């Protein structure tokens, strides 16, 4: 085998010796396999058992046949049938085999193959597809994943000044089928995923961080989840709570949408035309008024005439006075929220029209409970937008894999795809000088 072929196949170890007919193609286990035959031999510099320097007391003592699976070549399984020289040490009367940097000791997968499997695991694809692509078993791919996870060691001596909290639907084995996730609010780097979102569990885990690290947290961004408020007060002494802006807007629009549904259902039997229009154009009622198009007319079959978005909303609001008052109130709140005017925002909430339904007013005055968090949300630029995007990626990971039964495998895959695990640490093999 010439030097260029060695470089192409990754067989650059100078202690490998190839015969003239070094390549054979066979059918094995239903696969077409390229067999490369070679011999590994050298003069060891020391005994691998007792460590004594070789001054002639280490002699060759037969050979040992092994298999090394290489990277597939031209989508064909490739194996190296290696005849390793066995050595005998007269000093300690022990034997050991010749070693090569091509493969780890007591392993049949080459280092290049394991690195390539690791790179594939960092992509959102199934383990089964990876196993089929590299002619290994699913258990082998899982073993490589566990090897990668061993290189990940969470640090409990540091925390960012901005933390983002959230939860996502995980698996049945987790408490309440939900898991907890948190990330750095400034760099948008995932910090960890926990299998339990309950207060006692989260408190015991986060208290593992040093007091100095916890005192460094200045802001915690989260949704309106009451247990998280207790968690922040108990764990982060200097942290201020920032309510996620998306959940504030969601609370307002949900209240309006529920009133729209009640109004719509009241017309179902008496005036079906109004019912259908309120059902069809619900998105326009939830849209910001300043984003509605008032100049482009398009024919609409529901009204049987050209209409603009603004004209459609005006028509829908004319059906019910309560819906009109609620719409104007919500639009006013969204206006103050967009312009970050917290004073006017809460003044509007505390002076709601008494003609509005009581349940509707209750949903809006509920925001008073989180007044401090909303004020910080309007003051600062922090939000859970990046974390919500990460949650969506996690759901895609689970969907592509058709679900997970083992949470630790699921978390390991998340960490690998999100970049928390960067490389597999490999110990160099020392042999002949």
TrEMBL record:
InterPro entries tied to this protein: Transpos_ISL3, Transposase_DDE
Highest taxon listed in the record's lineage: Bacteria
Any Pfam family: DDE_Tnp_ISL3
TM region(s), chain numbering: none
Domain (Transposase IS204/IS1001/IS1096/IS1165 DDE) ranges: 163-414
Name this protein carries in UniProt: ISL3 family transposase
Species, as recorded: Enterococcus entomosocium
